[in-house]
Design goal:
- The structure holds two protein chains of two kinds.
- Chain A is mostly helical.
- Chain A folds into two domains: 4-37; 58-110.
- Helix content of chain A is 68%, strand content 0%.
- In chain A, helix 3 packs antiparallel against helix 5.
- By secondary structure, chain B is mainly alpha-helical.
- Helices cover 75% and strands 1% of the residues of chain B.
- The chains are: A mainly alpha, B mainly alpha.
- Chains A and B meet through helix 5 of A and helix 2 of B.
């Protein structure tokens, strides 16, 4: 029975979305024209295809940032609880950081930090 | 955690530090040979440590991991398979224009994950091991990124494995929400009256079974198997077919042996149904394939169905039958994909996997063809190979547990299986067509790399050896006990 309200909530949200779509479909005026149907009604007509190769070099920086971002997320609770954890926790965090630093060294050597 | 605990964990510690070491070696100086050497040395060291630990088992270390004889056996199996894959990968990657070194990092991480799963007694260690394994596999499957098929297979596996991981996590969350338990022993102690009738708990278990079924590639979660097997580099296919499945199966044995599956009738029936469907669909669909890797993919679906029959038998008989079957399956599958990988010497985008590539192989590469024939006969369960004893022990476990209907399906579908295995053998025996030059390799100067041939030879010998003298292996399997008593 506890889950009945979850079901009700799911039903209500579905009904609201479907109702909004259906209502606007029913009452909105529908007069398409050549200009209205052109892509980006208020912008420029596209030139060429979108399927071209473009440089995604920044993803490497994104990945490296993510690694150290997650590291920070682990470091905070560790630092807060540091006094109760003892020497073992210090050692474990040291190993964790060492692996990450070696990973950075690998990425550096591989040239991931160069902008190409 | 005492220093003795650390000693008990040493195989896992070696497996976890080896990838860091390889990474460091690559950062200092990139050399294929160095990477392989470190990989093989650390796998060898881990294997020796596993052997050493046999006397110390069983030992529970934190609530997450238990090192018992069962876990050690499966770790040894996984490490040995990784060793074979590393050697096969060396020969395979040497002939291709990819940077080979990172392959070994991924292989070691995947091996560490699989080994951790074999020893896990807790949802947390289970999930962490599974993710270590899966995330490495995404990249390993798509390792030949210049090849569209390999990339497609990697992406396919990524999406489906991620979806199945979501099922697994949700199932764990549902069980935890109702029972507040995350470790397997605790789940076993939770009273059947409390859990057996609780729909949410059963739903949680069924969702976990979906994820497990995906990893084992049993029907109806098998759709990814042929495509991924076909697209992945042959050594990786061998790894996916063996290590990733055996680690999940080890966990399944540990997990459901902890609690009586008969208490969860719906779960039990679902597994039985899955086994029947896998045996039927795997064998029937394999009949229509013209690609050796796809045939082996469907055959692996059927084989997992057979193993599930033994698994359903329950008790110590199940552990022995399943473990024996998995050993035989490991040797044959690694050998079969090793042959495919050894033959695929040319071309970036295509392996020697069409059945026409094998026409007349007996006349051009007799030794490889002989090894492949032995592997196929073992998969078919012909006497004097390990496959026969394996199938026999599965059947006797099934009969012992009164699973007559499942055993009948097993016997009938095995006969269907015989057809497509012998079809490959027949194609290999046929005279090579003189007019059209064969598509793939067999140019005399492109010999299989010596290490790969040596591993193939060892696998073939092992297969016949444990088929003719199964007693020593069965003796080891009899000592496999679960848990820290």
């Amino acid at each position: 029975m506890d889950y009945f309200f979850v079901l009700m909530l799911a039903g209500m949200s579905a009904a609201m979305v479907a109702g909004g779509l259906a209502f606007s479909f029913l009452i909105a005026p529908h007069r398409p024209g050549a200009i209205k149907n052109s892509p980006y009604e208020c912008g420029e007509p596209p030139i060429g295809q979108a399927w071209v190769q473009f440089n995604v070099g920044y993803y490497l920086f994104g990945l490296l940032f993510l690694v150290f971002d997650v590291e920070a997320a682990f470091l905070y609770p560790w630092a807060v609880a540091f006094h109760g954890l003892g020497f073992m926790a210090f050692l474990e965090m040291g190993i964790f950081l060492l692996v990450l630093i070696l990973g950075l060294a690998y990425a550096w050597k591989k040239g991931a930090l160069e902008w190409v | 955690m005492s220093s003795f605990d650390l000693y008990t964990l040493s195989p896992l510690i070696v497996l976890c530090s080896a990838p860091v070491l390889v990474m460091l070696a690559i950062a200092v100086r990139r050399s294929h040979e160095t990477s392989v050497a470190i990989t093989l040395a650390s796998l060898g060291l881990a294997f020796v440590l596993v052997r050493q630990l046999g006397a110390e088992a069983p030992r529970q270390i934190t609530p997450l991991i238990v090192i018992d004889r069962f876990a050690l056996f499966y770790m040894a199996l996984i490490i040995a398979a990784a060793f074979v894959v590393a050697v096969q990968g060396y020969g395979y990657l040497k002939r291709r224009h990819v940077q080979p070194d990172e392959f070994y990092i991924l292989l070691l991480i995947a091996t560490a994950g699989a080994a951790a799963m074999a020893a896990s007694t807790h949802f947390a260690s289970f999930y962490l091991g599974l993710e270590c394994l899966s995330v490495s596999l995404y990249v390993m499957i798509g390792y030949l990124r210049e090849s569209p098929r390999s990339a497609e297979a990697g992406l396919k596996y990524l999406i489906l494995a991620a979806a199945s991981a979501a099922f697994l996590l949700f199932g764990m969350a549902l069980v935890y929400a109702q029972l507040g338990i995350l470790d397997f022993a605790g789940l076993a102690h939770a009273k059947a009256t409390q859990t057996g009738s609780d729909m949410i708990v059963v739903l949680g278990f069924v969702m976990m079974l979906v994820a497990v079924g995906f990893k084992l590639s049993v029907v109806p979660f098998h759709m990814w198997t042929p495509d991924v097997y076909e697209g992945a580099p042959a050594p990786v296919t061998g790894f996916v077919a063996t290590v990733s499945k055996a680690s999940v199966f080890a966990l399944l044995l540990r997990y459901f042996s902890a609690m009586d599956p008969h208490l969860y009738r719906p779960v039990y029936v679902a597994v039985a149904l899955t086994a029947v469907l896998s045996m039927l669909a795997g064998n029937l669909l394999a009949l229509r394939q013209d690609n050796v890797k796809r045939i082996l993919a469907y055959s692996s679906i059927a084989h997992l169905g057979y193993v599930l029959v033994a698994y359903l038998a329950g008790g110590p008989a199940a552990i022995q039958a399943v473990s024996y079957y998995l050993v035989a399956y490991f040797v044959t599958t690694l050998g079969a994909f090793g042959v495919v990988g050894t033959l695929s010497t040319r071309g970036e985008h295509r392996e020697m996997d069409s059945i026409d590539d094998y026409r007349g192989l007996f006349w051009t590469r007799p030794w490889l063809a002989t090894a492949f024939t032995v592997m196929l006969l073992s998969l078919a369960g012909i006497p004097l190979t390990a496959g026969f004893i394996a199938k026999f022990s599965v059947m006797s476990a099934g009969v012992g547990a009164d699973l007559a209907r499942l055993v009948i399906v097993l016997a009938l579908t095995s006969i269907i299986g015989l057809f497509y295995y012998l079809r490959i053998v027949a194609v290999m025996c046929a005279r090579p067509a003189q007019s059209t030059a064969p598509v793939g390799a067999y140019v005399p100067e492109e010999k299989a790399s010596r290490s790969g041939a040596l591993v193939l030879f060892a696998l073939t010998v092992t297969l016949v050896w444990i088929g003719v003298f199964p007693a020593p292996l069965i003796g080891i399997l009899k000592t496999l006990t679960l848990g820290a008593h």
